[in-house]
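Figure 3 (text version): C-alpha cells given as input.
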C-alpha cells in the first residue's frame, strides 16, 4: 500500500507542476494578447484621428492612404515585436520548467517505473495461479467423472 501511495503522490506532484507551468504560460499569453490589443486599438484610434483631420482639411485621399500605410507598417512591426517578446518569454518558461530538477524524468519516472514493474510482477503471479487453479479443477472434474462412472458401473453391473 505504501508503494501505491508513493506512486499516487508522485503522479499528483507531476500534475501540480504541469498545472503551474500551464498557468504561467496562460498568464504570459494573456499579457501578450492584452498588449497586442492595446497596440491595435491605439493604432486604430490614431488612424481614425488622421482620417477625420485630413478630411476636415480637405486634403487628398492619396495623402490619407500614405499616412494609413505608414501607420499600418508601424503596427505590423509592433505586433512582430510583441510576438517575438512573447516567444522569448515562453521559450524561457519552457527551458526553466523542462530543465529543472522538478521535471518528470528526474523526479517521478524512476518511482513510477518501480510501481509499474511491481504491478507487472503481481499480475504475472496472479495469471500463473489462475492457470494452475484451472488445471487442477479440470483434473478434479476428470477424477470425479471416473469415480462416478465406476460407481454407476458397480451398481448396475452387480444385478
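Below: residues designed for each position.
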Amino acid at each position: 500500500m505504501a508503494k501505491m501511495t508513493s506512486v499516487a503522490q508522485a503522479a499528483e506532484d507531476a500534475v501540480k507542476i504541469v498545472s503551474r507551468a500551464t498557468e504561467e504560460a496562460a498568464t504570459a499569453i494573456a499579457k501578450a494578447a492584452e498588449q497586442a490589443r492595446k497596440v491595435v486599438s491605439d493604432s486604430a484610434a490614431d488612424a481614425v484621428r488622421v482620417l477625420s483631420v485630413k478630411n476636415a482639411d480637405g486634403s487628398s485621399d492619396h495623402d490619407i492612404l500614405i499616412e494609413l500605410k505608414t501607420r499600418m507598417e508601424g503596427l505590423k512591426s509592433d505586433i512582430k515585436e510583441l510576438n517575438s517578446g512573447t516567444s522569448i518569454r515562453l521559450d524561457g518558461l519552457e527551458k526553466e520548467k523542462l530543465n529543472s530538477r522538478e521535471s518528470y524524468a528526474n523526479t517521478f519516472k524512476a518511482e513510477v517505473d518501480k510501481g509499474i514493474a511491481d504491478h507487472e510482477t503481481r499480475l504475472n503471479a496472479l495469471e500463473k495461479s489462475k492457470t494452475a487453479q484451472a488445471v487442477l479443477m479440470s483434473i478434479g472434474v476428470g477424477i470425479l467423472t471416473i469415480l462416478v462412472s465406476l460407481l454407476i458401473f458397480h451398481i448396475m453391473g452387480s444385478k
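Residues 10 and 108 are 6 Å apart (CA to CA).
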